[in-house]
Structures are given as C-alpha cells and as structure tokens.
Write a structure and sequence with these properties.
homodimer; 332 residues; alpha/beta; six-stranded parallel beta sheet; six-stranded mixed beta sheet; 12 strands; 16% strand; DNA-binding
DNA sequence: CTGAAAGCGCTAACAT
DNA sequence: ATGTTAGCGCTTTCAG
C-alpha cells in the first residue's frame, strides 16, 4: 500500500503538500496540486484513515445503534439517518443491539474506542451506558426512548397514539381490549401502556392487570402473550400491541386459535410495516414517522457536532397517525 | 480522557507495562498487574482504539455490506454473521448499500480506510470494487452474489430452487407462469431466471420474453412489473418472484387488481420472511438458509484472517427448500 | 519481569 | 506557497 510519502516522492514534493493538495486545505499551487493528484492516482494511493483519525482527533463516522434490525420501524429510521448523514459528509455504521444490553454495551464501547464523531441510539433501558459517551465528549442523540443522562432526543407522542388506538377499538364496538407492551424498563413501552390505560378509564372500564402483558418486544414473546391472554378466565375481545414485530406474533397466535381479526377479535398495532396492508386482514396501525425520526436525529447530531459550546439538551417529539384498515373493525 | 501514561503514572510503572497488563500479553508480575488494573479503573481509562489500530496495523472490526436492509433475507444473514463474529472476538459494522453502487463504493472505501479486518458483502454487480480490498490485503467473502475478483463466497443453489418453484407452479395446474427477477447484471437474478426457464422448457412450453421482467429487486419495481405483466395481451396466470421484497410489491399489485393468489393466480417467491405465512393467502416460498449463509461467511472470513498464507478461494453453496403454503395452489 | 525508545501514517504549527 | 518538524496514543522491539 502506497503511503503519503511515496506520493510525495513521486510528485517531487513534501508529504505536507500532498496532504494539503488532497484535502483541499490551505493553499497549494494548482500545477503542483495536479501533479500530486496524478502521482496519487498512479500509485493507487488511499489515505490511511486510522492514521488520519489519530492525528485529527476526530472521525467522520457515526454509530447508529438500534434495538432490533428485524423491526421495520428501525430500518426506516436507519434510512432517514443515512440520507442526512451522507448529505453532510458522514458515514454511518449500523449496530444491531438486538434488545440485548450486553450487545449494546459492546457497541457503545466500540464506538467510544473508535472515536466516532457521534452516536444515535435507541437505548435499551436497563441503564444504558450513555454517560461514558458524554464523558468522552462524543455527542449522543437518543431516539424512540430516553435515558437519564441528559442528551438530545427524538421521540413520538407514544401515549397519545396508544390512547387513540385503544379509543378506536372501543369506538369500533369491542369491550375488553388487552394490551401487549414491551419491557417495564422501557419508557416507550410504559407510555404506550399508559395511553391504553387512559382510553380504558375514559371508557369507564376498570383496568384489569389480567389484560396486560409485558414482553421483550419480540415476535415469540408476543405469540406467547397472546395465547396466555386467550387462556384467561375472562379473555379479551381485542388487542392493542405495542410494535410491529409483536403484531406478527399476535397475528400468528390468533391464526393458530382460528380467531380472525376484524371478525372475531379486534387488533391494532403500533408501527406501520411494508406488509401491514397485505396480511389477512389488513392491519390497523398507529404509524410513526420513522424516516423523519431518523432524519431529525441526524440533524440534531450534526448541530451538536458542529457547535463546540455545550448547550442544553433538545427534545423533539413527533406525532403518530392512526391508519384504520380492517383488523380493528367489528362486523355488524 | 485518561491516557495510558496517566494510568502508568498512577500505578507507578511505565506505559509499556500498562499495555502488557491490560492486554494480558507478555509477562507481568501479578501484583503489578493488579495495581495497573486498579489505576485504570479509578481513572476510568479506556484505550484509544484508533491509536491502537494504527500501531497494530489491524482492527477487530468487520464490515458487513448488504444490499437492502429492508429485505428480511439480509437481516437474517446479518444475525448469522454477528453471532459468529462475536464468538470470535470481532465486532461487525453493518452498511446498507441500498442496491446503490455509489453507496456501496463509499462503504467499501470507508472499510478500506478504516482498515477493517475483513469484509462480507453482497455485491451490487456493476463491477463492485472488490479488487481494491484484495490489493489492500483485506480479506473479502461475498454472499448471495459473486464477483469477478476471485474471493471466498457463500451462495445458494438459486437455479435449482427457482426451477423447483416453477415446476411446482406447473404441477399445481398453472399454465403460463411469469418471472419477475432482479437486474440483469446480478447473477443471482440471472440464475433464478434460468431456473425458471429450465422448468418452462421441461414443461415443453415456449419461453416468452413477454412473461419476463427485470427489476431492481425492490417493492415498487415489482409492483409495476406485475401490473405490466397483467396488461399483456396474453397475461400470465402465475408468478415466480425472485425475492421477498418483491413479493410484497407483487402481492400489492394483485390485490389492487382484485386477483387473489391461490385462487385466481399462482404465486411463489424466493426467500421466506416473518410475515410470509401471515399474508392473505399464506405465501409459498423457496426458503434460503439465510442465517447459515451469514454464519458460514463469518467462518470463512475468520479462517482467511487467521491464515497469513494466500490460498485458493473457497466457495460454499447451500441448498434451498420449497415451502408450500397456499398462494401457489390452484383450486379444483 | 520491566523500562526506554522507536514508530505506525498522517496533519498542523511553525519556519522559510 | 512549501518544507521541516513534532506528535496524536498506543504497542512492540530491544536492552537491562
């Protein structure tokens, strides 16, 4: 591999001039710059990014740490982040924490060690180790969930969205909606549960703990939770499920039991997904502006990186949209 | 941020000893090692990975460059890669090339500059710039698709799988199956088309170009292709679609036209997906061992990284499995 | 078993 | 406008 000094020798200049010419920094005689570029091309020179990063004490790389790569919400977020990052000259490295605290910690550590320019993360809640990043003065933006450490965040009105979804279930004529939400330590899960409870109380029903299940946000757990709810002495007649991944599990469980949403039971899920309108029946959802969430987080991060002066954390909260298809409807 | 010399001072030793103690390398007096660890902990010391990488001239990070993050095939592959990587002490950074050559090139460049230990990639075919990696002596394993540059690869028997799928369509009583495949420059797409053609010829039909569509492997393109096929003078009565993402588009188009698979038309897709059994009707698929593909690629890469001696490229080809659900069946 | 010293490849101050 | 020099933080010879 050709190094900068090889290019310098070939072009008959110093290494510093090569660096300046290739990075368009400072002032270089146009003719010289051209000679340098030619020499670099002939040698197939590629700057060693590791050396550059060490010297510059910074990187043009972001880490995007998401909770679950199979959740379409996060893949859409990733698109939003990437588009803006590219526009601003950053590369983004995607890390899949898989709702697992150890993996998340590992990626956070890699991000710190590799001195990334910034981190966007949907934190697992059990005390995500964000404070280390702040100590290392690496800007962090959280999405979807918040943490104790005060950093920028982009959220949606989960509680309001969940409430609207559950109200819609009541309005459609269902009487005993259940709620399948995420882990107790995830505030997104908690807010969606609260929204559900808001609607239950508004409908002047008594919230029953037997109609609530906490899971790890994954397919299998939702499948089990649905079966468990169906096995209750007084089973629910409708379901509010707190994300798209779990909707798959719930749908499967209902199918297993021969129960058809939109006919035998009601079903609404948080998050839209590419397949949501194609399942049987088409799924009613609370859609999040996932792409915008990613794009917004990316913008906040860029600003944070550019300003050297510390500044109060900024919080952006976006709205959800109820999309009524068929799974929530009640015949007759 | 504490540096190694700070730890050294606090522990009353040299930087070299700190390095040795923390990396468990060479021989360090146990008592000293303990003192070093204590000092490091007190200072919250984290080694600067960039500096370490520069000195060591290597990294413990892989780049996994996939074609489309929304395709469940690739997310499953990613799981397989990550599990093995973690087991062997590597971290994997996921890059979404989005079926876009520019993005792919960019990530390849970042991977080279950041001196990753290895690359696993599902290459976009229009001359992926793999040769640069080889020049930089960074090991590469391709998955799903191959390139000209001779490197290790993990593939599936695409042609056989496609043939089996199409034969199944004929066996179910359909007479004019169409094929929606990927770009002409992608050999996976080409092989799936060939498998389709094999079956057509076996059935003693004449392959009609009017029944074949090339797309970019994405939802929208498949949607359009399906509508276009339906608009032919002699439209097909069945569809073989070359990946899961496109199945979504085809399904949508058929639904738009009021055509129900498993009743009005036949439909088989390459790739299984979490939602495949939940759509209406459940989708018949040619399942790829996606997780195993990832895991196998990861194993090949590890071996390649460990052996210093060059060695002929290795190619592993795994088998597919036809899973008959309902979308391919013909009533009566 | 430990320390001193060199140096990975690059960029940024400082000279000229 | 260009070259010289120093040094980013770490690991790894090489001495002792």
């Amino acid at each position: 591999m050709a190094k900068i000094i090889d290019v310098a020798n070939r072009a008959g200049v110093s290494a510093a001039t090569v660096s300046r010419a290739l990075n368009n920094v400072g002032t270089v005689d146009p003719a010289l710059a051209e000679r340098v570029r030619a020499a670099a091309a002939e040698l197939g020179y590629r700057p060693n990014g590791v050396a550059r990063n060490l010297r510059r004490q910074r990187t043009d790389v972001w880490a995007l740490i998401i909770s679950d790569i199979e959740n379409p919400f996060f893949t859409a977020v990733a698109r939003g982040v990437e588009d803006i990052a590219r526009e601003r000259g950053f590369s983004v490295l995607l890390c899949n924490a898989d709702e697992d605290k150890h993996k998340e910690d590992r990626y956070l550590q890699v991000a710190e060690q590799e001195q990334v320019a910034g981190v966007i993360i949907s934190p697992n809640m059990r005390g995500s180790d964000i404070s280390r990043m702040v100590q290392a003065s690496i800007p962090v933006v959280t999405i979807d969930r918040t943490v104790r450490t005060p950093v920028d965040s982009v959220m949606v009105h989960s509680r309001a969205g969940a409430r609207e979804a559950t109200e819609h279930l009541f309005a459609s004529g269902w009487r005993r909606p259940a709620c399948i939400t995420g882990p107790e330590y995830a505030d997104t899960a908690e807010q969606r549960l609260q929204g559900y409870l808001d609607a239950v109380k508004d409908a002047r029903r008594r919230p029953a703990t037997s109609l609530i299940r906490h899971t790890n946000f994954q397919v299998e757990a939702a499948h089990a939770a649905t079966l468990s709810l169906l096995g209750e002495r007084r089973p629910p007649d409708a379901f509010f499920v707190a994300n798209a991944t779990m909707a798959l599990g719930a749908l499967q469980a209902l199918t297993d039991r021969g129960l058809k949403p939109g006919r035998d039971v009601g079903l609404v899920a948080f998050d839209d997904a590419p397949w949501a309108r194609l399942v049987d029946p088409p799924l009613t959802v609370v859609a999040q502006p996932a792409y915008d969430i990613g794009a917004t987080a990316a913008r906040l991060l860029t600003e944070r990186i550019q300003r050297s002066a510390p500044q109060r954390p900024r919080h952006v909260t976006l709205s959800t949209e109820l999309i009524v298809r068929q799974s929530s409807l009640r015949p007759g």
